């Protein structure tokens, strides 16, 4: 660890003693001291007291401009008035029915009008959405195998926990990556049914179909690879995937858990102009409450209607989450708000680029819709293996430096990205950029010193 990073860590620990104390207490009863592995980091995570709009406060009373936004689930921002009003109204009229109600049809109509699906079912999390979409694709095609991309994250079920973060010794050939379990407990049979391809590498996709003729049910991907910072599809990549899937009788599944509400009005299909067969939605569609959906053409969804594929869930379409979802689609994810967020996104990205150039930091800015990231590489990455070359200590220097200046620039972990909510303002972006301008020179200096040290050895 180099001295400038250690300095920021020392400042962080002086500013957040109550978070340290809370984490130490949690460790006695909760593995890693957190409710999700992704929330754990050294020396300890920030514990939140409350949040409003575009900001939150920690237990020590420090305020932060929030671009974590619950790992991108809060394009609505914290406590959006329209969402809060809808939720408060539902709390006094029933929170759980386990029976149908009118909001199901209303929200289904909203979603089907925006996204290229004819029917859908609701759930509570992105993991549920991708799990059921994959099962439905297998049922629709009578095939078992699913092509996914190395480094892609699609939730925590067995068909998704394959080659999420493989290590270099496990890679295999770039054109035919090994299928690597994402931890213990993933059955070998599940791994065997998930051949892995390389993002932005059509040859690897075509090879998988040649090796598994008539066995592949679907290709699943995030249209923008979001588990590596932010990696955009190269021109023609999505179009070619569409053609490959169609030619081979497989379905193309867009995992839009992250991108669906944040790229724009109609999600990735509208943004890129390439239509999938199925979509998976979650995170920001709920406005801060747990809500998910998966949808497709009627002919595919009819497998559920015909009782050939089973889908259920006690908490599905609970009226509190559905009320939040309706308010989100009708009053938060509006064309006017997308215009507002796009302007702020452009302002933030342009500001970062100017500071990067001024400081001589070797980096670039990747952005799309409400999301963006400082990518600490000399040139644009194209896939997971490119992403792995990141200087982790340099990224930690950036993240803790920003946090110490009152800006949570993105979730902790160098595979994440920032989110801009509809409640962020130009003033928030100015403060974000001012913090980065203060951090960037030390980042550039550390980067140059570390690069020189590597060259000497």
List keywords for this structure.
alpha/beta; Aspartate Aminotransferase, domain 1; Aspartate Aminotransferase, domain 2; 4-stranded mixed beta sheet; 16 strands; 14% strand
Protein architecture, described:
The protein has two domains: 196 residues, Aspartate Aminotransferase, domain 1 (Alpha-Beta Complex); 252 residues, Aspartate Aminotransferase, domain 2. The chain is 42% helix and 14% strand. A hairpin with a 4-residue loop joins strand 2 and strand 3. 49% of the residues are buried.
Summarize the structure.
With 457 residues, the protein is α/β, with parallel strands linked by helices.
Low-confidence stretches: none
In terms of DSSP E residues, the strand content is 5-15%
Fraction of residues in helix: 40-55%
Secondary-structure class: alpha/beta
Task: Tell me about the largest β-sheet.
Answer: 7 strands, mixed
Q: CATH-wise, what's the superfamily of the largest domain?
A: Type I PLP-dependent aspartate aminotransferase-like (Major domain)
- Global Rg: 22 Å
Q: Please tell me what the overall shape is.
A: globular
Number of helical stretches of at least 4 residues: 16
- CATH fold-level label of the largest domain: Aspartate Aminotransferase, domain 2
* CATH architecture title of the largest domain: 3-Layer(aba) Sandwich
Strand order of the largest sheet: 4-12-11-10-9-5-8
The domain tally reads 2
**Given this structure, which CATH class of the largest domain is correct?**
Alpha Beta
Whole-Å distance between the termini?
17 Å
Number of distinct beta strands: 16
What's the rounded overall pLDDT mean?
Answer: 97
């Amino acid at each position: 660890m180099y001295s400038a990073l250690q300095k920021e860590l020392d400042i962080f620990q002086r500013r957040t003693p109550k978070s340290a104390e809370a984490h130490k207490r949690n460790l006695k009863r909760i593995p890693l001291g957190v409710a999700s592995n992704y929330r754990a980091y050294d020396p300890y995570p920030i514990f939140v007291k409350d949040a409003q709009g575009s900001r939150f406060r920690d237990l020590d009373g420090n305020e932060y401009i929030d671009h974590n936004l619950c790992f991108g689930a809060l394009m609505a921002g914290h406590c959006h008035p329209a969402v809060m009003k809808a939720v408060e109204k539902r709390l006094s009229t029933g929170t759980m029915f386990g029976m149908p109600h009118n909001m199901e049809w209303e929200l289904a109509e909203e979603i089907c009008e925006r996204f290229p699906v004819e029917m859908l079912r609701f759930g509570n999390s992105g993991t549920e959405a991708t799990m059921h979409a994959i099962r439905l694709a297998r049922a629709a095609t009578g095939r078992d195998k699913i092509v996914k991309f190395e480094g892609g994250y699609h939730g925590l079920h067995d068909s998704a926990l394959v080659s999420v973060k493989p290590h270099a010794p496990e890679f295999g050939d770039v054109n035919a990556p090994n299928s690597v379990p994402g931890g213990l407990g993933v059955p070998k049979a599940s791994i065997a049914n998930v051949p892995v391809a390389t993002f932005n590498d059509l040859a690897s996709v075509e090879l998988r179909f040649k090796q598994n003729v008539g066995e592949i049910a679907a290709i699943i991907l995030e249209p923008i690879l979001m588990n590596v910072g932010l990696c955009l599809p190269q021109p023609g990549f999505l179009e070619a995937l569409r053609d490959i899937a169609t030619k081979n009788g497989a379905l193309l599944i867009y995992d839009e858990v992250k991108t669906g509400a944040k790229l724009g009005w109609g999600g990735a299909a509208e943004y890129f102009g390439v239509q999938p067969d199925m979509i998976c939605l979650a995170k920001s569609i709920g406005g801060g409450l747990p809500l998910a959906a998966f949808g497709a053409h009627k002919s595919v969804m009819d497998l559920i209607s015909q009782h050939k594929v089973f889908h259920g869930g006690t908490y599905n379409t609970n009226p509190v989450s559905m009320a939040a979802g309706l308010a989100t689609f009708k009053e938060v994810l509006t064309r006017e708000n997308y215009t507002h967020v796009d302007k702020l996104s452009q302002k933030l990205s342009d500001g970062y680029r100017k500071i990067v150039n001024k400081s001589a930091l070797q980096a670039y800015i990747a952005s799309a819709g409400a999301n963006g990231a400082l990518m600490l590489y000399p040139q644009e990455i194209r896939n997971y293996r490119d992403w792995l070359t990141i200087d982790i200590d340099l990224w930690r220097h950036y993240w803790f430096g920003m946090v110490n200046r009152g800006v949570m620039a993105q979730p902790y972990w160098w595979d994440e990205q920032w989110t801009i909510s509809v409640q962020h303002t130009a003033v928030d972006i100015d403060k974000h950029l001012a913090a980065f301008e203060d951090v960037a020179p030390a980042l550039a200096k550390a980067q140059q010193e570390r690069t020189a040290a590597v060259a000497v050895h």
